[in-house]
Amino acid sequence: PALCAPDAPPQLRQACDEYLVGLERTYRLTCYVAILAVIVGTFLPGWPFAWEGRQSQQASQARLIDAVSSVARAPAAPCAGAAALRFVRRQRASLWMD
Which of 18, 48, 54, 55 has a CA positioned 20 to 30 A from the CA of residue 63? Predict the structure, then answer.
């Protein structure tokens, strides 16, 4: 479609066309960035979901550590060998590294 006046010089028509194409690309890029921001925003704590705070996270980590340490203290089954014990120790050590 003709974006400039039909009697405009060719250089002016080309400048007008390139200007409008640039605006279209800029708006499209802005739309993509806005969509990406909405997606990233859904993973942030708080809205739209409830956030219990740091104390809740620390409590869940403490429960996980207690569960792993209780597994490590439990008597080994007759079929559990050294590999199973190494696995439990690695899991326990990785919790302390985090």
Answer: 48
